[in-house]
Amino acid sequence: MDNRKRQTLRTVILKRLAEVSRQAGHGPEETDAEERLSDPVDQATQERERDLLRLFRARENAEIRKLALALDRMEQGSYGICLSCDGEISGKRLMAEPTALLCVDCQEKREQKRAAATR
Ligand SMILES: [Zn+2]
């Protein structure tokens, strides 16, 4: 991968990281939900909302972790190298998914394996 492409991807990752962190920081606070609990009928709904929020946040954190890992790998010079076969991950794939750790072939193989395991 050439330097210019790596710089572009770095910018993409940093931008996405800023976006995800901003969303994570400005989500509705638990205390707000607490205050709105005055009506007991709504309580079940509120609890469900809170569960969803927690799920959502966990996913955001996973996204943050993935983005941070991509930046780490960039520093170490291992960015864009498939974790499974050491082959190069195509620039097109990385532009679509900057946090990709596997090349298309290995990703497909893994997904097939996962599909077979859940069948
Ligand atoms: Zn691979």
What order do the SSEs take from the amino end to the carboxyl end, as H and E?
HHHHH
Please give the share of residues in helix: over 70%
Biggest β-sheet description: none
Distance between the termini: 38 Å
Radius of gyration: 19 Å
- Counted beta strands: 0
The CATH architecture category equals Up-down Bundle
Give the distinct bound molecules: zinc ion
Give the CATH superfamily.
Answer: DksA, coiled-coil domain
Description of the structure:
The chain is an all-alpha fold and about 120 residues long. The protein has one domain (about 5-119): Four Helix Bundle (Hemerythrin (Met), subunit A), CATH 1.20.120. Helix content is about 70%, strand content about 0%. It is built from five helices and no strands. It has helices at about 5-25, 30-35, 45-75, 90-95, 105-119. Helix 1 (about 5-25) packs antiparallel against helix 3. The chain is flat and about 60 Å long. The two termini are about 40 Å apart.
Primary descriptors:
single chain; 119 residues; mainly alpha; Four Helix Bundle (Hemerythrin (Met), subunit A); 71% helix; 0% strand; binds zinc ion
Architecture blueprint of SSEs:
Blueprint: H1 3-25, H2 30-35, H3 43-76, H4 91-96, H5 104-118
The structure holds zinc ion.
Zinc ion is lined by residues 82, 84-85, 87, 102-103, 105-106.
